[in-house]
Design goal:
Blueprint: H1 2-29, E1 32-33, E2 45-46, H2 49-61, H3 72-91, H4 95-112, E3 119-121, E4 129-130, H5 135-153, H6 159-177, H7 184-200, H8 214-235, H9 242-248, H10 250-265, H11 278-284, H12 289-312, H13 317-336, H14 338-350
Helix pairs in contact: 1-2, 1-7, 2-3, 2-7, 2-8, 3-4, 3-8, 4-5, 5-6, 5-8, 5-10, 6-7, 6-8, 6-12, 9-12, 10-13, 11-12, 12-13
Length: 351
């Protein structure tokens, strides 16, 4: 156990050191995000957060005394998406190519890792829902969906990393509350994410991020979080309701589902870039980027708290589902009536 606890600061330290080491080479190689168009950051920002977090996380796992055989599919999927993300950051991969690679990584989870979402609980009060043969495609959809949800959340300094950090903390808390062994792998990833946030999170003394995670970072974080969430459901033997896990992952998934539905309705590609994300609406309403990021990270924490509290107070799954559906409907209303909501937010911001 001593080595396990030692591995957490190692993940943090290695990530932070590698960010410093890779900064210069990234600029020379052109692995930078250039401002212009939808991108409003200042100067060329190195896209090395994903590489640093992956290597920090992977190197820290080498200190663990437990066997890592079961995590080979996790490493393989993260490596695949890391390379895909770097290539996309350098040369702009097509949406189809990225989607195909995400499907391959998701297939690793199911076929190689043996992890599946096969039970959804009593979501609607009509009895337990078992997926049966639908568990494999449903799991693949969940993994690919979360990968893209985190990727789409990466539009403001500190937002994607902060949301992932909060989701990991709630997954760790749920593991401990269920009486399961210490979830060291999510703890190591959280340590790496925290180190990245030191360079990416907005605060009073630094108005702009000095490092971005890039598509490589957002995709590996979404993939790893999906792995840990599905693994937790599998290991808990029903002790943790699936609706609790859904609540923990709610905010980025909700935003992504609404955005994709709107794009399809408008006849656009589901993967088309735009400025209709929740954080864009807050920023256009006059909230600063730090205020927007703090608000949305707090919202992600709130939905996770709803899931955990509902579970520990033995609320029926159907009631917790109703709370999450209400959140989704309010989110949808907020986006569909963005201009009206911006006026309301401006008044709130002014007060």
């Amino acid at each position: 156990m001593t080595k396990a606890w030692l591995a957490i600061p190692v993940a943090f330290a290695v990530t932070a050191i590698l960010i410093h080491v890779f900064r210069g080479p990234a600029i020379r190689l052109g692995l930078v995000d250039i401002p212009g168009g939808r991108k409003e950051h200042v100067g060329e920002v190195p896209l090395i957060g994903g590489v640093a977090m992956f290597l920090g996380f992977a190197s820290a796992t080498l200190l663990l005394e437990q066997s890592l055989t079961q995590y080979r599919p996790l490493y393989a999927g993260m490596s695949l998406l890391l390379v895909a993300g770097i290539l996309d950051d350098l040369h702009d991969l097509s949406a189809r190519a990225k989607f195909a690679l995400q499907l391959v990584a998701a297939f690793f989870v199911v076929a190689w890792g043996g992890l599946k979402v096969s039970y959804l609980g009593n979501l609607f009060g009509l009895g337990p829902i078992h997926l049966g043969i639908l568990s494999t495609p449903f799991t693949i959809i969940c993994v690919v969906g979360l990968v893209n949800a985190v990727n789409m959340a990466d539009g403001s300094d500190g937002l994607a990393g902060g949301i992932v950090f909060v989701m990991l903390l709630w997954l760790i808390a749920a593991t401990l509350l269920a009486g399961l062994p210490l979830p060291i792998m999510p703890l190591l990833l959280a340590g790496s994410v925290l180190a990245f946030l030191l360079f990416n999170f907005p605060h009073a003394k630094r108005r702009h991020a000095s490092i971005f995670m890039g598509d490589s970072g957002s995709m590996i974080l979404g993939f790893a979080t999906a792995w840990f969430a599905i693994q937790l459901m599998s290991n808990s033997d029903g002790r943790i309701p699936p609706i609790t896990i859904a609540a923990i992952l709610m905010l980025p998934v909700s935003d992504t589902v609404i955005l994709i539905a709107r794009r399809i309705y408008k006849g656009q590609s589901p993967m088309a870039a735009d400025r209709e994300h929740l954080h864009h609406i807050f920023e256009r309403a006059g909230f600063s980027r730090p205020q927007t990021v703090y608000t949305l990270i707090s919202t992600a924490g709130l939905t996770g708290a709803i899931g955990i509290i509902g579970w520990k107070t033995a609320l029926p799954d159907g009631f917790v589902s109703l709370l999450l559906i209400t959140f989704f409907v309010l989110h949808l209303f907020f986006v569909l009536h963005a201009w009206r909501m911006m006026r309301v937010l401006r008044r709130m911001h002014g007060s």
